[in-house]
Amino acid sequence: MKIIETNLPEVLLLEPKVFGDARGFFLESWNKQTFADLGLNLDFVQDNHSRSAQGVLRGIHYQLNQPQGKLVRVVSGAVFDVAVDLRKSSPNFGRWVGYELSADNHRMLWVPPGFGHGFLVLSEAADFLYKTTELYAPQWERGVRWNDPDIGIQWPLQGLPTGEPQLSGKDQVAALLKDAEVYA
């Protein structure tokens, strides 16, 4: 497993070793010992799988209490995946990183607790898998507006058929960072 540091020190881009030949490929996406050897002692409690059509934007989501760490990857298609530091005490508060994750590049992103997370589907459809360190707790779910000017995420919207993302009702009315409940 190769770790690529990002501009947010706690968020890591991971590249697993891929063994391939004419028959296909094999990769190990999660191994508790391998991750521990890399300094990531993680205990996952839930696996999630979402499928979304091109142009769907999910996020920026987080749980105020029971904050989730997420190990995310794409097994079909491609997304632009984003993490935002939502810890008021952090020198990186409000900063973001974004990377393309795809079935072709096999990259994964580690989004630690204290960060918001979202993604935009770039391909015709995408299957997105993620492991979480805490159970889903809808009563603590919060969101920050995907296009908040104080965060300034540069979403790759130019390739979308309509030029605009498809959003859920809750994402359309998510709070701006200045008004959002965030971590201490």
Describe this structure in words.
- The chain has 184 residues and is mostly beta strands.
- The chain has a single domain, classed as Jelly Rolls.
- It is built from 2 helices and 13 strands, in the order E-E-E-E-H-E-E-E-E-E-E-E-E-E-H.
- The chain has helices at residues 32-37, 169-172, and strands spanning 2-5, 12-15, 18-21, 24-27, 46-53, 57-63, 70-76, 78-85, 96-102, 108-111, 115-121, 125-132, 141-143.
- The strands form 3 sheets. It has a 6-stranded antiparallel beta sheet with strand order 1-2-10-7-12-5, with no helix packed on it.
How is the secondary structure organized here?
Blueprint: E1 2-5, E2 12-15, E3 18-21, E4 24-27, H1 32-37, E5 46-53, E6 57-63, E7 70-76, E8 78-85, E9 96-102, E10 108-111, E11 115-121, E12 125-132, E13 141-143, H2 169-172
Antiparallel strand pairs: 1-2, 2-10, 3-4, 5-12, 6-11, 6-13, 7-10, 7-12, 8-9, 8-11
Which CATH-level-2 architecture?
Sandwich
CATH superfamily: Jelly Rolls
User: What is the helical fraction, as a range of percent?
Assistant: under 10%
Provide the CATH top-level class: Mainly Beta
Point out poorly predicted stretches: none
Short synopsis of the structure:
The chain is mainly beta. It has two helices and 13 strands, in the order E-E-E-E-H-E-E-E-E-E-E-E-E-E-H.
For the structure shown, list the relevant keywords:
5% helix; mainly beta; globular; 184 residues; six-stranded antiparallel sheet; single chain; 41% strand; five-stranded antiparallel sheet; Jelly Rolls
